[in-house]
Every structure is written in C-alpha cells, then in structure tokens.
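RECORD TYPE: protein structure
NAME: Tudor domain-containing protein
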Amino acid sequence: LYIVYKNSRGKYFHYPILERYDENLKTSLLYVDYGDDRCAEFMRLGALIKYYCERVHTKTKLNFSTYASLHSYSQ
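PREDICTED:
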C-alpha cells in the first residue's frame, strides 16, 4: 500500500505504508516511510489517511506550493 503525492510541477512521489510491532503497546503500528525516523504512527489505516489528508489540506491553505493527492494500490 502506498501514499502517492503529486507536487505542483506534476511529479509523483510514492511512499510505502509500512507496519511495525510495538512491544510496549503490544500492537502493530502503521507509518509512511518517507525517510523520517520520527514520523507519525497509527493503530488504524483510517487514522493514517485522515492525518495525511488534513496535513496536505492545511499546507495548501497556508499557500505552500505543493499539491498532494492520496491514492492507494497494491503491488
């Protein structure tokens, strides 16, 4: 499963959604692997999608030059 971002120049970036097991919480956590060791983690896919959709919407409202859309597909 991937999140796909499209920037204002029309270039697409594919970031995998990965899973890790947290021993303290005794559950699996989902995160987007975009190279940040401190990225947000989520117990549910819906929460992850909501977070990134809201984050993109907020950045767009603040006049950042990045446009992003969220898509998923499996390999």
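COMMENT: The first strand starts at residue 2 and ends at 6.
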